[in-house]
Amino acid sequence: MKRARNCCGPYHRGEAQAPTPEATLRARFAAFNKGEPDYILNTTHPDYHVHQYNVPTPGGAQDRLREDVAAGCNRFAYTGLKIVKTEPGVNEYEGYVAFEYLSRKRSAPGAPITEAEVKDANAWSRTAERGRFLKTSTGLWQYVDAQTATFDASRLSGIQEPAAAQ
To answer: N or C, which terminus of the chain has less Cβ within 10 Å?
Structure first.
């Protein structure tokens, strides 16, 4: 497994841009786990605000998005990212990534997940998404919107327990 310092670190620090929607998604996932909301905010398209927060103008809910991203970083742990499929969009500036991951609420904001919590399969939820990304004129891929489904992992047959929170 690649470590964020070698893989996503340059993206998180702004030294490079992820070259594909998949690489952007992987870097966003790592940023949620590492508690780096700035990268997530920078790679969220302004149109996301219109869809997520029902505001009339793109970028119109930046403060609310910042609060939600910080809460997502601090209150939840994520693991088991699996890329299911990548697809091109209608042109070279659009792409789709279908993916799945496991998440669970932390015992306290920012608290590490304990070994017992890792093994508690009933506490993990599986989320499946098909995310849409748009490429800006500067080459930055940004997450715009997604189709999402969340499942209680304990109710799905054949689900493996998470190996460890990443």
So the answer is: N
Closest by CA position to 165, among listed 105, 108, 109: 105
Q: List, as one string, the DSSP characters of 24-58.
A: HHHHHHHHHHHT-HHHHHHTB-THHHHHHH--SST
The model's pLDDT over 69-110, given as tens digits with 9 standing for 90+, comes to: 999 999 999 999 999 999 999 999 999 999 999 999 988 888
- What's the one-letter identity of residue 85? K
d(CA 121, CA 137): 43
Domain boundaries, given as residue ranges, for the chain? 9-155
For the domain bounded by 9-155, which CATH number is listed?
A: 3.10.450.50
pTM for this prediction = 0.82
The alpha-carbon radius of gyration of the chain (Å, integer) is 16
Residue 119, H or E segment: helix 115-119
